[in-house]
C-alpha cells in the first residue's frame, strides 16, 4: 500500500524518523501411470512453456479428486496432537561467545528502540546504527560516525521503507525527497543512489520496474559483461547490469533458465500439479527479495505449517510422550555441543571436529536415547539436520556449521503457488541468454576476458561466474591464469551436498489437507534420511502432489537405485501409514525421481560448512580476481544466506554493484552514449544497408571477388530488449555461400547452432575482429564510397 503523507524527519538532532506502513536436474526420471508396466525415461524433461496454475491457499482439502466422497481423516488414531517442527538448520547462534552476545544485545536493542522503518532496514540486512562496508566504500557520508551518519541512516531507512510499502511502482528520487527537509537533499541523493545501484529498491518484475530496468539509469555505457549461468544469481546480475549501463550476454549450459530451481508440470488422468524439483521453500519471508517478487506478481504465500506428525516404521503414530522426551534430549545434546565448541574456540581456535562425532559422543556419555524407539526418533531429528545442510552429520563442522544463523531472515517459511519457476521465467524475460552453451574455459587479463563455450568464443570486459560450487569443485571450467591458491583452497574446504526428491502425483488427495508435512522413522541408522519427510503441495501446486525427501547418506545411495524401486518403497511407507486407518493409497498418476548428484551442471544441491571450513570461505569464494576482471556469485558466495534461493538472488545484486564500482574506478570509464567511437559508427553505417538480412543476422559481402567463395562479414544482434542500453553485436567471418545457407534456416537458435556446429565458426566482439576482417571492411567502405561518387557524377552529368 502507499504510505500516508509523512512529516519530514527532524534530522539534527534525530528524533524518530517517518514511519511507513509495515509492510533438477536434467537427468531426473519420470514414471507414469502403472508402475508395474512403467519404464525409465532417461531423457531430459523440459518445463512446459505455460504458467503453472495457482491453487487456492489454505484449502482444507484438495478438490481435484475424481472421487465423489471425501477421504476419511488420515490421523484419527494419532496419540496426542502432532508436534510442531521446522526444517532445523538453526539451533544456536553462538559462533563464538562475543559474537553471540553482541547479536543478542543488538536484537534486544532493536526490539526496544527501533521504529518500523529501522526494522525494515534491519530485515534486509542493514545494521542498526552503523554503515555497511559497501556504504563506507561508496562514500555515502563525508565522515564515518557523527551526526551526518546518523542523519544518513534515518534518510536511508525512510527511502527503503517507502519503496517497500509499494513495490509495484518505481520510486523516483524526487518522490523520495518529498518527506525529507530540503536542507538534507545531499543525504537523499547519496542514500537514493546507493540503494538504487545496490538493488535495495526498484528491483523485481512488476511491469513498471521491468520496463525501467531495461534502460540504463544514466547516459553512460560501461562495457560488456559475460554472465556464466542463468540461475537466480546470473539472471539478477544481468538485469541489474543492463540497468547500470553494461551490455550483457548470458551463457547457460542447459536448455532452460533457473539452474537448481526447476518446476515441472506433472499431469495425467485429469489431474495436474506444478512440482519444484530443486529450490522450493522460501526460508523466512521478512526482508526476502523473493517475497517482493511474489507481491509484485500478486501471488499469495502459503505458510508451511509447523504441525508434523511422525510415524513408526510399521506405520503407527509415534507416542507423543516419547516424542516430547526425545526432542528435549536432542536439544540438550545440541546445547552441550554448543558449550563444547565455545570452550574449544576460546582455547584452541584452529580445532574442529565433525558435528556428528560430537553429538554421538555426548549421547553415549549421557546415555541418551538408548531404547530403540527413542533412538529412531533421535535419528529422525539428525536426518532433519542432514536435510537442512544437504550432507551427513560426519561432514559438518562442529564449530561453524550454522555460522549464518545470526543473519537468518525472520518470518514464516512459505511455498509459492505454482512453483518457483514463475520467478525464473519473469526474471529471464527479454534477457540475451545463449542456451546450450557449456563453458569450458575462461581467460582473463588486463585487456578483458574471453569465454569459450560449446565451440564459440565470447569476448567482454568482465565476466561473472555463477556456476554451482559443485562445478567449481569438479574443475569443469578451466581458468587462465589459474585461480589464486586462496580461492582454490576455499573451493576445496567448503562442502557441497546432496538432497533428492521423489515427487508423486496422485489421482486424489488421500492424506488430508490439515498438514503440510509428516515424517517417517526407520530402524536402519544409515538410511535414516530415506523418505524421512513428506511435503504436501496440494494447496499450492494445483493438484494432489506429495514430495518425499531423501537426505544424508540415503541421498547418495538413492541415485544408484532403480527409480521404479524408489517409488515402490515410498508407496509401501504410505500404505503402512494409511491402510490401517481404512484409507486406500491409490496408484500414482506420475512420479519423478531427481538425480542432482549426477547433474553435470550442478553435481549436487547446495553448500555447507564442512569440517575445517568456516564462513570466511564463503567470502573468499565471493572475491573477484584478475584485478576486477573475474567475479563470482551464487549461494555458495553468500556468507549470510548460503544454501538459499534468496542468497543466490542477493549475490547477483552484490556482484552487479561490485562490477559497477570496479568499472568506475578503472577507466573503462563511462563513455557518453551519444559518442560512439568512429570505427563502430562507420561499421554501423555499413550495416544499415546490409547485402543480406535475416532474423537477428545481417551480412556484408566482399565486393572483390564477387563469388560464393568470397568472404563475408556476419553480424548478429543479441538481445532485442536491451536496445536502450546499446545493442550487443557479435561478428564472424564466413563465406558468402555460408551466409546464404544460414539465411535459408528457420529461427535464430537453429542458425546459431549451424554456425557453431556445422561451420565451426565462433562469434567475437568488435575488438576481436582480425586484420582480415578490417581489410574487408575497408574494401566495402571504398567500394560504397566509389559507388556514391559515381552516382553523384551521373546525377551531375544529367543535370548539366
Automatic annotation (TrEMBL):
PROSITE patterns: SWIRM. GO terms for molecular function: oxidoreductase activity. InterPro entries: Amino_oxidase, FAD/NAD-bd_sf, Flavin_monoamine_oxidase, Homeodomain-like_sf, SWIRM, WH-like_DNA-bd_sf. One of its GO terms (biological process) is chromatin organization. It comes from the Eukaryota. Residues 1-86 are annotated as: Disordered. GO terms for cellular component: nucleus. Residues 111-212 form the SWIRM domain. Keywords: Chromatin regulator, Oxidoreductase. Residues 33-48 have a biased composition (Polar residues). Belongs to the flavin monoamine oxidase family. This is SWIRM domain-containing protein.
Amino acid at each position: 500500500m502507499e504510505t500516508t503523507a509523512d512529516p519530514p524527519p527532524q534530522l539534527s538532532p534525530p528524533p524518530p524518523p517517518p514511519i511507513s506502513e509495515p509492510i533438477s536436474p536434467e537427468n531426473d526420471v519420470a514414471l507414469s501411470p502403472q508402475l508395474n508396466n512403467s519404464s525409465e525415461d532417461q531423457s531430459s524433461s523440459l518445463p512446459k512453456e505455460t504458467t503453472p496454475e495457482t491453487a487456492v491457499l489454505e484449502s482444507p482439502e484438495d478438490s481435484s479428486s475424481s472421487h465423489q466422497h471425501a477421504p476419511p481423516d488420515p490421523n484419527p488414531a494419532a496419540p496426542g496432537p502432532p508436534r510442531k517442527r521446522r526444517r532445523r538448520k538453526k539451533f544456536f547462534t553462538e559462533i563464538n561467545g562475543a559474537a553471540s552476545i553482541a547479536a543478542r544485545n543488538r536484537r534486544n536493542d532493536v526490539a526496544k528502540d527501533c521504529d518500523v522503518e529501522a526494522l525494515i532496514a534491519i530485515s534486509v540486512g542493514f545494521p542498526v546504527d552503523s554503515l555497511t562496508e559497501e556504504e563506507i566504500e561508496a562514500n555515502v557520508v563525508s565522515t564515518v560516525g557523527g551526526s551526518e551518519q546518523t542523519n544518513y541512516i534515518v534518510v536511508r531507512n525512510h527511502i527503503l521503507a517507502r519503496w517497500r510499502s509499494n513495490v509495484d511502482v518505481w520510486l523516483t528520487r524526487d518522490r523520495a525527497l518529498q518527506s525529507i527537509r530540503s536542507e538534507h537533499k545531499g543525504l537523499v541523493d547519496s542514500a537514493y543512489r546507493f540503494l538504487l545501484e545496490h538493488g535495495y529498491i526498484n528491483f523485481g518484475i512488476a511491469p513498471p520496474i521491468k520496463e525501467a530496468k531495461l534502460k540504463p539509469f544514466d547516459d553512460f555505457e560501461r562495457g560488456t559483461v559475460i554472465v556464466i549461468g542463468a540461475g537466480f544469481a546470473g539472471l539478477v546480475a544481468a538485469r541489474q547490469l543492463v540497468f547500470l549501463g553494461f551490455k550483457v550476454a548470458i551463457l547457460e549450459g542447459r536448455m532452460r533458465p533457473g539452474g537448481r530451481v526447476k518446476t515441472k508440470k506433472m499431469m495425467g488422468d485429469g489431474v495436474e500439479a506444478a512440482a519444484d524439483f530443486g529450490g522450493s521453500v522460501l526460508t523466512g519471508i521478512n526482508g526476502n527479495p523473493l517475497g517482493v517478487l511474489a507481491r509484485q506478481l500478486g501471488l499469495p504465500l502459503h505458510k508451511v505449517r509447523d504441525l508434523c506428525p511422525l510415524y513408526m516404521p510399521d506405520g503407527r503414530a509415534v507416542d507423543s510422550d516419547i516424542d516430547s522426551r526425545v526432542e528435549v534430549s536432542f536439544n540438550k545434546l545440541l546445547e552441550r555441543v554448543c558449550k563444547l565448541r565455545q570452550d574449544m574456540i576460546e582455547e584452541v581456535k584452529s580445532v574442529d571436529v565433525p558435528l556428528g562425532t560430537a553429538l554421538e559422543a555426548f549421547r553415549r556419555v549421557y546415555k541418551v536415547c538408548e531404547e530403540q524407539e527413542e533412538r529412531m526418533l533421535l535419528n529422525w531429528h539428525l536426518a532433519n539436520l542432514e536435510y537442512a545442510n544437504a550432507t551427513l552429520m560426519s561432514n559438518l563442522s562442529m564449530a561453524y556449521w550454522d555460522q549464518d544463523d545470526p543473519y537468518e531472515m525472520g518470518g514464516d517459511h512459505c511455498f509459492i503457488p505454482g512453483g518457483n519457476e514463475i520467478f525464473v521465467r519473469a526474471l529471464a524475460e527479454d534477457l540475451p541468454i545463449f542456451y546450450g552453451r557449456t563453458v569450458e574455459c575462461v581467460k582473463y587479463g588486463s585487456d578483458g576476458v574471453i569465454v569459450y563455450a560449446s565451440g564459440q568464443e565470447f569476448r567482454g570486459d568482465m565476466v561473472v561466474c555463477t556456476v554451482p560450487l559443485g562445478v567449481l569443485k569438479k574443475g569443469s571450467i578451466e581458468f587462465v591464469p589459474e585461480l589464486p591458491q586462496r580461492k582454490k583452497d576455499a573451493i576445496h574446504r567448503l562442502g557441497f551436498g546432496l538432497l533428492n526428491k521423489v515427487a508423486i502425483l496422485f489421482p486424489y488427495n488421500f492424506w488430508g489437507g490439515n498438514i503440510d508435512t509428516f515424517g517417517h522413522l526407520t530402524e536402519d541408522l544409515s538410511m535414516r534420511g530415506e523418505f524421512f519427510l513428506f511435503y504436501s503441495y496440494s494447496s499450492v501446486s494445483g493438484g494432489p502432489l506429495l514430495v518425499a525427501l531423501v537426505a544424508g547418506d540415503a541421498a547418495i545411495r538413492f541415485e544408484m537405485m532403480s527409480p521404479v524401486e524408489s517409488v515402490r518403497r515410498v508407496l509401501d511407507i504410505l500404505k503402512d501409514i494409511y491402510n490401517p486407518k481404512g484409507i486406500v493409497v491409490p496408484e500414482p498418476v506420475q512420479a519423478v525421481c531427481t538425480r542432482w548428484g549426477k547433474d553435470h551442471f550442478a553435481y549436487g544441491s547446495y553448500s555447507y560448512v564442512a569440517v575445517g571450513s568456516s564462513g570466511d570461505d564463503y567470502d573468499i569464494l565471493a572475491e573477484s580476481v584478475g584485478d576486477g576482471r573475474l567475479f563470482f556469485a551464487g549461494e555458495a558466495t553468500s556468507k549470510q544466506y548460503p544454501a538459499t534461493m534468496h542468497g543466490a538472488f542477493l549475490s547477483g545484486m552484490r556482484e552487479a554493484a561490485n562490477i559497477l564500482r570496479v568499472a568506475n574506478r578503472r577507466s573503462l570509464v563511462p563513455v557518453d552514449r551519444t559518442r560512439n567511437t568512429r570505427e563502430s559508427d562507420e561499421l554501423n553505417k555499413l550495416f544499415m544497408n546490409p547485402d543480406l538480412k535475416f532474423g537477428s543476422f545481417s551480412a556484408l559481402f566482399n565486393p572483390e571477388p564477387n563469388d560464393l567463395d568470397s568472404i563475408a562479414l556476419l553480424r548478429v544482434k543479441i538481445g532485442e530488449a536491451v536496445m536502450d542500453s546499446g545493442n550487443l553485436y557479435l561478428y564472424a567471418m564466413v563465406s558468402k555461400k555460408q551466409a546464404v545457407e544460414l539465411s535459408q534456416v528457420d529461427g535464430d537458435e537453429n542458425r546459431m547452432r549451424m554456425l557453431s556446429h556445422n561451420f565451426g565458426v565462433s562469434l567475437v566482439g568488435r575488438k576481436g575482429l582480425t586484420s582480415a576482417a578490417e581489410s574487408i571492411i575497408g574494401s566495402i567502405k571504398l567500394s560504397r564510397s566509389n559507388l556514391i561518387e559515381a552516382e553523384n557524377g551521373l546525377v551531375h552529368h544529367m543535370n548539366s
